[in-house]
Amino acid sequence: MFNKFKEKLGSFKKAFSKTIDEKAVEVEPVIIEQVPESEESLEEEIEPIIEEETIEAALEEEIPEKGAVPEVISHVSVEDLKKAEYRKKVEDRKKAAEKKKEEKEEVKPVEEKKSFFKKLAPKVGFTQKAKALVFNREVYLDEKDLEEPLWELEMGLLESDLAVSVSEAIVESVKNQLTGTTKRIGSNTGDIVEEALKKAILDVVSANTFDFDEYVKNRPKPVHIVFVGINGTGKTTSISKMTHRLLKLGYSVVLAAGDTFRAGAIDQLGIHADRLGVKMIKHQAGADPAAVIYDAVQYAKAHNIDFVLSDTAGRMHTNMNLMAQMEKICRVSSPDLIIFVDEAVAGNDAVERAAQFNDAVPIDGSILTKIDADAKGGAAISIAYITGKPILFFGVGQGYEDLKKFEPEWFVDQLFGQS
Ligand SMILES: Nc1nc2c(ncn2[C@@H]2O[C@H](COP(=O)(O)OP(=O)(O)OP(=O)(O)O)[C@@H](O)[C@H]2O)c(=O)[nH]1
């Protein structure tokens, strides 16, 4: 999910890591807490913890001259380690390793370094050395240091379909988080930037969120929800998914076939109503949608139905007549919620449309569909920010179950996660 977003942010992370590596200074060496008492325990303690990554880090360093004591020794606490004994073991093992290496046939330079460290490093306390190398660095960044990486970030965000104002807000937040304070660097310099970016995005998408379930639970029944948006974005499908969800929660639902404009729209909703076992109120094709919706609300009131979900015709936000009609539908039926539905893959277009629909009615929140079609993520971040109204649900497929309640933390995890 959101693979393009992850891809776009790669160059920012790279630029940022480079800046950190250039500016970071080493601070006090690590204090080693646990030292193996015997040769056997030394083996046990250290051997299993060699990781490719730490070996790569060590490869940046020169292989010590033959006979020289590896630099790590200078970081090791003498008192705790019984240094003399330890150093001797190190020397012996190093000699043995070098002897073995000489006996081997010719190997490529990198392989040679790797095998050297694989054999030697563990025996000189490689894990401790890695800690001294990576955990004991600090960096202080000022605005100038971040100019280039932040430029990369802004480009990455814009290419991920974030609206300009949202990208700027996120860049500003990342800048404020990273400049002017001394940061300790962990094993991965990219972590610092990822944390800052996650927080910036989380702040944006968490603004104005509200709990849909809590909200509808506490509303007088019937709760009336109207779905609006342009053609083909997934309104009808989202209504059927929402119906399924509400039925599962124990509510009763009636549908209003308010899309009297598109041929086949009434039948399409009718099929879902039959499958889900709910009543659908309909008029003839071409009838006044406000009248259909009015009837559905009356039906719900008369039959103690908990929810009325009203479909409406898809309309372009640029079509003034249809937008005026939608405004009338919403005014006459005074719904509890007006939900804007658009597809996440539409990127900036979806953001623009959300803003226009919000101006016209206004909307109470959005459902973003087709998240499963590898959306870039920008629309989801931008729509909430631009409209000031929350994302309520994601459509993540075509089945009834494929409606995911929007949770900011879950969303940010998806943006940065492995999936
Ligand atoms: N992959 C995927 N497809 C979806 C999702 N939501 C809807 N669709 C598909 O998008 C297409 C259009 O969905 P509809 O529900 O008919 O869209 P609509 O907004 O009601 O369309 P109009 O009635 O023309 O306004 C259908 O093929 C749906 O199956 C989703 O979350 N993921």
UniProtKB/TrEMBL annotation:
Top EC category: hydrolase
Binding site for GTP: 229-236, 311-315, 369-372
Key word Signal present: no
InterPro entries documented for this protein: AAA+_ATPase, P-loop_NTPase, Signal_recog_particl_SRP54_hlx, SR_rcpt_FtsY, SRP/SRP_N, SRP54_GTPase_dom, SRP54_N_sf
GO molecular function terms listed in the Swiss-Prot or TrEMBL record: GTP binding; GTPase activity; signal recognition particle binding
Keyword annotations: Cell cycle, Cell division, Cell membrane, Coiled coil, Cytoplasm, GTP-binding, Hydrolase, Membrane, Nucleotide-binding, Receptor
Annotated Signal recognition particle SRP54 helical bundle domain residues: 122-205
Coiled-coil ranges per UniProt: 83-113
Cellular location(s): Cell membrane; Cytoplasm
Ranges for domain AAA+ ATPase: 221-407
Residue span(s) of domain SRP54-type proteins GTP-binding: 222-417
Pfam families linked to this entry: SRP54, SRP54_N
Membrane topology classification: Peripheral membrane protein
Gene3D superfamilies xref list: P-loop containing nucleotide triphosphate hydrolases, Signal recognition particle SRP54, nucleotide-binding domain
E.C. number(s) listed in UniProt: 3.6.5.4
SMART domains documented for this protein: AAA, SRP54, SRP54_N
Reactions this protein catalyses: GTP + H2O = GDP + phosphate + H(+)
Protein family per UniProt: Belongs to the GTP-binding SRP family. FtsY subfamily.
PANTHER family in the record: SIGNAL RECOGNITION PARTICLE RECEPTOR SUBUNIT ALPHA
Protein name stated in the entry: Signal recognition particle receptor FtsY
Organism: Methanosarcina mazei
